[in-house]
Amino acid sequence: MAERLFFFLCAFVAISTAVGVVASRNPVRSALLLVLNFFCLAMLYFTLTAQFVGIIQIIVYAGAIMVLFLFVIMLLNLGSPEAQMRERELRRPLAWLLAIGLFLVLVSQVFVVVGGQSQPRVEAGTARVIGYAMFTQWSFPLLIVAVLLTVGVIGSILLARRRSA
Amino acid sequence: MTLSELGWALLRVAIVLGFLLGSLPLIIWFERRAIAWFQDRIGPNRLGPFGLFQPIADAVKLFFKEEIVPAEADRLIWSLAPALSLFPALVAAATIPWGPNRLLTPVADVEIGILYFLAMSSLAAYGVLLAGWSSNNKYSLLGGLRASAQVISYELGMGLALATAILASGSLRMTEMVAVQAEPLWGVVPFLPNWLVFTPWGLVGAALFFVCMLAETNRAPFDLPEAESELVAGYQTEYSSMKFAAFFMGEYMALLTISGIMTTCFLGGYLAPVNWSPLQSLAEGVGGVFVPLAVLTGALAPPFWFLLKLAALVFAFVWVRATLLRLRYDQLMNLGWRVLIPVGLVNLALLTVYLLYGWLPALAGYGLVTVLYVFWSGGRARRVERRQVLLYAEARPYRRQQEVRHG
Fold this sequence. Notes:
The complex is a heterodimer of chains A (165) and B (407). Chain A is built from seven helices and no strands. By secondary structure, chain A is an all-alpha fold. In chain A, helix 1 (2-23) packs antiparallel against helix 2 (27-47) and helix 2 (27-47) packs antiparallel against helix 3. Chain A is globular. Chain B has 407 residues and is mainly alpha-helical. In chain B, a hairpin with a 3-residue loop joins strand 1 (184-185) and strand 2. In chain B, helix 2 crosses helix 9, helix 5 (138-169) runs antiparallel to helix 7 (200-216) and helix 7 (200-216) runs antiparallel to helix 9 (241-266). The radius of gyration of chain B is 25 Å and the shape is globular. The chains are: A mainly alpha (165), B mainly alpha (407). Chain A binds chain B through residues 2, 26, 28-29, 32, 35, 51-52, 55-56, 58-59, 62-64, 67-68, 70-71, 74-75, 126-127, and chain B through 1, 74, 76-77, 110-112, 115-116, 118-119, 122-123, 125-126, 129-130, 132-133, 141, 144-145, 148-149, 151-152, 155, 172.
């Protein structure tokens, strides 16, 4: 009972902050609402016994990436983006279409889970399980991702160098 | 969860929060007295015995001060920022064990204990960053930006240092990390515990962690975000009254928590430096008065050792602040990215060599790396270093101007 109450609380905050991210006119407040949203998602992972996934969600997204986002927003000192929005009036119908399509896909998946048998709880998100899967079954994709990230780092350094030299 | 479990959980929370908040005035007093001692002054000595009541008087003064909100500030975020810097400091200590009794400590003995601390300390950047931005003051903004850049950079080094501790103990759970360190030293010396700092990888990791811990808490010599002389206290410039006090409290509680993490990961947590348990069982065997005495020391000794190590680390914080000068911004970034992270990576690699091939290849690796570094740095020292100061070219036109002579 308490667990279900906690789930609904987190879900409610997560959805309302997600709406707030898009609706807010102030980029800094949008970013802050996104941080809160990530935090609630992490809480939901915790209730699914996926402790490791939840804590990584906080460390990587809430703790590192969003700090960087805020950093850039503050550095550029962005105002409200209304001027840019007026230029993109044409893209609006397309955006609505995509949004509704994505929503329908997600809802259909939810109904698949709700209608079917409830799965027995498995330890899917602990550090041991994830580490074992990543370094045995998925070690090749892991290496590919590592190479990709290295290429990205080197590329960004090259771009920064060219600008300053 | 039954009612008694809930009661114990609340008691654990109360103990940790009580300790953090209760030791706060003591630490502030200790820092001021110790700095005074280092600088050959007297320090606050008027209020109470040895000036012990000075922090209470300071708190009361801050409580009754007028709160001034900057006219152009973003009010909501401006008043949120102190709370955001206080929150991680209050909750981050939840997984640190400071005694063997699992009913009293830690608050939550979760599988991801050390990652929980990393997550909470990474959230600490928000308070400072938002305080700097929402004050709408250029000094505050610069302070906030400096703080966030610094925290992001040093979190990597800190993560590498903690990774050595995790790899050496084979667990993310903090109670298990302490339990591993209770084994005999290097597997051979029975009466000494195997603290991580006594191993080469642990020593390097602990040194790395100590530097990163100074930077993470924005303490001297890494206190650029609040540099008084250039940024008029940086992100806290516009804050007064209790909001200023909240930043102050957050800083000192973060200091305590991070010292607790270092104690747990590298300095053997609540373990005594000598293994007393044979002596204890001997006392219990003798019987009589010695039995309650042995039980009492068994219960009181672990928290005592933990607090002693904590106090030593806090003293080290003050010692560093009284000794070292503040770094320049480029020195800060060079130290973080070009020294700490490579050292941490090499250390981690050599630790894996130890885990896979035993201690002989690992020690040989440490020797090899040291020799290579000496040769490389010697070669670099022979080359003459040329530095071009970019600002000079811009400053030259002003220098060329003729001085106007009077008379």
